[in-house]
Amino acid sequence: MRMGWNLMKKTGFNGIPAAGALFLLAMAAGGDVHLEDMLTGSILWTNWTDVLTCITVFVVVGLFHIAF
Question: How far is CA 5 from the centre of its chain?
């Protein structure tokens, strides 16, 4: 019984940040479009330009953290 209660508490904590993100998106200008994209699953589709941009940003930030 105790193990099930701990699992339920952890599951609840996972939902709090998700609800907060949805709330912030709903309050942002144009957030309804991003929210619709997330809920319909179109966030899963991307192109190589977006992937390479993210890789470049992560490498630059990583090198900055290593240097300083």
Answer: 27
Cut 0.70: pTM above it: no
The three-state DSSP-derived secondary structure of 32-67 is HHHHHHHHHCHHHCCCHHHHHHHHHHHHHHHHHHHH
Distance CA 13, CA 10 (A): 5
User: What are the average pLDDT values for consecutive 10-residue runs of the chain, which has 68 residues?
Assistant: 57 72 78 74 76 92 91
Rounded-to-integer distance, Cα 13 and Cα 17, Å: 8
What is the pLDDT, as a whole number, of residue 13? 67
Which DSSP state fits 28? S
Residue ranges making up the domain that contains 60: 2-67
